[in-house]
Amino acid sequence: HVFLEDAANNNFHIAGAQKQQEPPRRRKAMAKALLTADAARSLVGSVDAFLFDCDGVIWKGDELIQGVPETLELLRKLGKKLVFVTNNSRKSRRQYSKKFKTLGLEVTEEEIFTSSFAAAMFLKLNNFSPEKKVYVVGEDGILDELKLAGFECFGGPEDGKKNIMLEANFYFDHDKNVGAVVVGLDQYFNYYKMQYASLCIRENPGCLFIATNRDPTGHMTSAQEWPGFSIQKCQILILGASIVPVHFLIALSFRSWNYGCCSKLLGAERAYCCWKTFKLFDGLPIEKLQFGNVENVHGW
C-alpha cells in the first residue's frame, strides 16, 4: 500500500482503501496494522521507485479508485519514480497511456509495462527470427506490441469471427511459417483459434508457446469479478485420461465384482494412472502392475 499524507490533519491513509463499515474486532486489528505517520514518512523516504499494478489498484474497470490521484501527485512531488505494471494484455502501452489520460492521470508510455510488451520483448531479446510469424490468441494489445517490436503477427480479434465446419475429411490448414504462439486474455476466444494455435505448436518445428499471464480473475468492470487468463482456485476434474475417473471407475468395478484385492493388472497406454490409483485406494493392494501399449508391454 502507498500512504498519502493529508495536509489537514497530518495523518496517513491507504490510497484506495474501501470505506466500508468493518466489524469492531476487525477494525481493531486493522488499526494495529496501520503505520504511524512517522513510520509512513520513513517508509516513503527509503524508497526511490514505486511499482503500481493497474487493475484493482489504480482503477476498477473504467472507474478511478479513490485517493489515487492525490497519492501519485504526492509521490511525484517527492521526486519518486513511478512505474505502472499490469498482467492485462488486452491493451498496449500506448492504449494504456490514453486510458490514464482519460481518467485524468498524466502517465507516459515509458512508465508503463504490460504483459503484452513483455511478450514482445521476450521474443526480441531471445533473437526470434524476423522471418517467422507470430500467431496471437488474444487481443489488440498483443498485436500492437508485436508490430512495434518489428514482428509479423496475425490472429487476435479478427479470428474471433471465424468458424470451423466439422465435416467428414475436413482438413484445417495453417501457416507453416508460424514460429511462436502468444496467448493472453481473449474475449473473442473460439474453437478456430484453439485449433490454429494447437496445429502451429504441434506441427511447426520449434514453435514457441508463450502465455502473457495466468491470473484467475480480472477487474473488467467495477461491478464484479470476471474470469482472468486461468482458474487456479478450483480443483480441476477431467473425466477422461486422468487419475480421477480411473480411481473412481476401477474402485466401482472392483466393488461390483466383489474383488477384495488384485495381484496383477494389465493396462493400456496410459495405465500408469492405475498404479497411482491403487496406491491411493485403500483395501486394494497390488503385487504387480504391467503397463504399456499393445505392441510393447512393459512390466513393473
From TrEMBL:
Compartments reported by the entry: Plastid, Chloroplast
Entry-linked Pfam families: Hydrolase_6
Signal sequence range: none
Main location as per UniProt: plastid
One annotated GO molecular function: phosphoglycolate phosphatase activity
Listed EC numbers: 3.1.3.18
Keyword terms of this UniProt record: Acetylation, Chloroplast, Hydrolase, Phosphoprotein, Photorespiration, Plastid, Transit peptide
Sequence similarity: Belongs to the HAD-like hydrolase superfamily. CbbY/CbbZ/Gph/YieH family.
Protein name: phosphoglycolate phosphatase
Organism of provenance: Aegilops tauschii subsp. strangulata (Goatgrass)
